[in-house]
Amino acid sequence: MFGLITDSAKNFTDHFLQKNEDIIEVELKDVFTRFTNDVLTSTSFGLAVDSFKNPNNLFLDMAERMFNFASGIGKLIKFNIMIQWPALYEFLGLPVFDVAVNDFFEKLVEDTIQMREERGIVRPDMIHLLMEAKKESVKEKTIDNGKYEDTDTKNLQLTNKDIAAQAFFFYLAGFDAVATVLCFFCYEIVVNQEIQDRLRAEVEESFDNCGGAVTYDTINELKYFDMVLQETVRKWPPLFAMDRVCTKSFTIEPKVPDEQPVYLEKGTTFWLPIYALHHDPTYFPDPDIFDPERFNPENKLNIKAGTYLAFGSGPRRCIGYRLAFVEIKTILFHLLYYFEIVKTQKSQIPIKIKPTSPNLCSRDGFWFAFKKIRR
């Protein structure tokens, strides 16, 4: 899939390089959303969609409908009912998404599978992987004492509807989260110019070493990039919190005299406060300071297990976080090689968070500019 991501990253930078202006003001959430849309339609559904040449494409329209389901107080209440009391939500017959959204993606996948089977088309994307998985048998895995154990082998028996659901979730999970992380990453390297300069030096050295032929290994070797990215999702995690289910009964013993023990019964759903953990000075000193050195090889070893949860932890860790990191680093590699990211009169520094959003986002947008680097 790396080639598909690179194609979208090059298309992104080419779009702005072709403009006559040397300084191009942009709203980052808008342009990065278009980028993630192009990547995900390509890697999830096997379709080439240029959201810069065609800004009103159907995928962006469907994505807007998807993410509007949890905006506003009323919709947030509905969303919380769905998470906390799924049986009640189902009983009330409340749809998770617009029916038109579900129908669109299901028909898209049905048509894509049919065309590929009839014409023998093979493409390195999610649809192909799921079509291959449909043919295979796999070992079921259970978790016992925190370890995976193989049980029976069985056929997955995936239907086309199952494949559509998985591709849809892949698209949903990566669409807003990646664009949001990109926005906060850029915000921090504008505020901290020395970090942007060091990143660009790493990019330029890497670009020269590979002769401009950027590969998956090129991206993985960007060590300082990794540090800045991990600090970005530490300070600005994609989710405020995440829910988990106890797999066995457990008692949280009091640590100080005024506390009471908390008993969690097996099957209990509870919330992990990611943002609170990431901003607790007990675990991350001076948590409001953006400091990538927290994640250098030496300091990273001192981070207490279970306190850094940007993408979860353990067997339930976000399955797509590695792909998300590659996607983020690839677009920023190309962007920082050709442009400096600078503030404008519309830039909001310090940033103000939108209070009614289910995840972190700017109240007034991420207004910055791409300044062309002349070489």
From TrEMBL:
Residues passing through the membrane, by range: 168-190
Look up keyword tRNA-binding and say if it applies.
Answer: no
- Write down the CDD domains for this protein, in alphabetical order: CYP6-like
Topology in the lipid bilayer: Peripheral membrane protein
Q: Which cofactor does it need?
A: heme
Ordered alphabetically, the record's keywords are: Endoplasmic reticulum, Heme, Iron, Membrane, Metal-binding, Microsome, Monooxygenase, Oxidoreductase, Transmembrane, Transmembrane helix
Q: Which family is annotated?
A: Belongs to the cytochrome P450 family.
Q: Which locations, inside or outside the cell, does it occupy?
A: Endoplasmic reticulum membrane; Microsome membrane
Upper lineage: Eukaryota, Metazoa, Ecdysozoa, Arthropoda, Hexapoda
PANTHER family for this protein: CYP9F3-RELATED (PTHR24292:SF54), CYTOCHROME P450 (PTHR24292)
What is the protein name for this chain? Cytochrome P450
Identify the residues that bind heme: C318
Q: Does the keyword Iron apply?
A: yes
Q: Which SUPFAM superfamilies match?
A: Cytochrome P450 (SSF48264)
Location, primary (coarse class)? endoplasmic reticulum
- Gene3D superfamilies referenced in this protein's UniProt entry, alphabetically: Cytochrome P450
Q: Name one GO cellular component term.
A: endoplasmic reticulum membrane
One MF term in the entry's GO annotations: heme binding
The species this protein belongs to is Diabrotica balteata
